[in-house]
Amino acid sequence: MSTTGSPGPSAGTRRTNLTRTDGPRTDGSRTSGTRTDGVWNGLLLEVRERPLPGLRLWTAENRLLLTRGAAAEPLLLALVDPDRHGVDFYRTGRHRPLVPPLRAHQARAYGGSRQRWAHHFATLLTASPDSPLHDGRWVLKPDPLLLRWKHRGEREGEYWRSLLVEGDPDGYIDWWIHSGSWEIFPLRAMPDADDPRVKAYRKQARDGTLPPVLLWWVSGLDSHLVLDGHARLAAAIAESVEPAVLELQRTTPRDEVDTGTERAVAAYEAELARFTELRAAQGPRVPDGAEFAGPALARRLHELRTAHRPTWAWPLPGGLLEWRRIAREQVGEGGWEYA
Quick check: helix, strand or coil at residue 245? Predict the structure, then answer.
C-alpha cells in the first residue's frame, strides 16, 4: 500500500470541526460527534474487516486511476504535472450512484437533517461493495472546508457553480490558481437544470428538504469527488441555494489516538502540578491552572480524534505500462493526448 499526499501547499493543515465524540452510539462502529454547545457536527466510523475498498485509487508514478468493483472498472484516469501545478484527467462516464434513489417521502421525513442523512449514508456505504471505505477510521461531516472565496453580493448558484471542476470527458484541475480550495469534482457530467431528475429536486431545494450531496475528499486530486448527488447539486445551483453537503474523509487511526491521548493527559497533569507548586510558593492568588490546561487538553484531544489523513492509494500492478494500456483502451488512440 502507499499513500497519495495532498498536492496543495495548505492541504495538510485541514481539520474537521468535531470537538468531542461522546454522543450516542448507534452500534459498535459508529459514533456521533458534537460541539461543546451540543450541536451535532459529524459521524465517526470505525471500519473493520475491509482491507480493500470497492472504489479504489491506484497509483503508477505520477498517474492515478480510480476503479470500481472486483473487476476494477475504470472511472477516472489522471496525470499529475511533474511540477505539481495541477492534474489532467479523463472521466470514462461509467460512474453510478452509490446510493439508491432518495424518495420524496424520505426527504420530508428527514426534514433536511444532515445528522439523519449521515446515518443513512453510513449504512449504505458500509454495506456497498463499491464504496471507498476500507479498514480504519473515517468521518462523515456536514461542513467541509471548501474555502469560501465568495464575494459580497455573489449569488449561491454562481458561487457553487464556480467550485465545479469543468471538463467532459477530459479537463484540468489547476492547483496553481485553486491551490488549497478543494474544488468539487463531478464523477460524471453534471445534468442540466431542465433534466427531469433535477426538476424533481428543485422543489426540495426551495423548501429546505433537499438531501445532502455526498462528497469524498481525495488528497491526490486536492478535490472533493461527488460520490452521490450530481442531480441534487445541480438543483441547488439552479435554485441558487446553498446545498447541504456531507463529506467523507479518512481520520486518525485508533492507535495514534490512544498514544496521543496518553501523552496529552500526561502533559495536562504536569501543567496542573506546576501550578500547584506555584500556589504553594506564592499563595492562593495564583490560579490552579485548570482554566489554562483544560482548554489545551480539549484542543489536543480534538485534533487527535479528527485530524485529516491523506487518501490511500494502491500501487497499480504493471505500473506505468498498465496505466497507459488502460488509458488507450478507455479513450482510444488520439482521444486524449495522455493515453
Answer: strand
Which three cell numbers mark 29? 462502529
- Measured in degrees and rounded to the nearest 5, phi and psi for residue 100 equal -60, 160
With cell 454547545, the residue in question is: 37
Element (H, E) at 32: strand 30-34
C-alpha Rg value of the chain to the nearest Å: 22
For 84, list phi and psi in degrees, rounded to 5: 60, 40
Question: What pLDDT does 150 receive?
Answer: 67
SS3 call for 73: strand
- pLDDT, position 9: 30
- What is the band of 149 on the pLDDT scale with cuts at 50, 70, 90? low
Residue 16 has pLDDT above 50, yes or no: no
> In this predicted model, which residue has the larger pLDDT, 88 or 32?
88
Question: How many whole angstroms separate alpha carbon 158 and alpha carbon 148?
Answer: 13
User: 274 and 283 in contact (C-beta within 8 Å)?
Assistant: no
Rounded Cα distance between 249 and 308, Å, is: 7
- Under the banding of pLDDT at 50, 70 and 90, the label for residue 78 is very high
Separation of alpha carbons 331 and 77, rounded Å = 10
List the one residue out of 301, 307, 308 whose CA is nearest residue 266: 301
Q: Are 163 and 184 in contact (CB under 8 A)?
A: yes
Q: Where are the alpha helices (DSSP H) in the chain?
A: 104-110, 114-127, 156-162, 175-178, 196-207, 230-239, 254-282, 290-306, 319-331
Q: Using the Cα atoms of residue 225, residue 228, residue 231 and residue 234 in order, give the sign of their dihedral.
A: negative
Nearest CA-CA partner of 310 in 1, 2, 5, 30: 5
Q: Give tens-digit pLDDT for 84-141.
A: 889 999 999 999 988 888 888 999 999 889 999 999 999 999 999 999 999 999 999 8
> Pairing relation of β-strands 223-228 and 183-186?
parallel
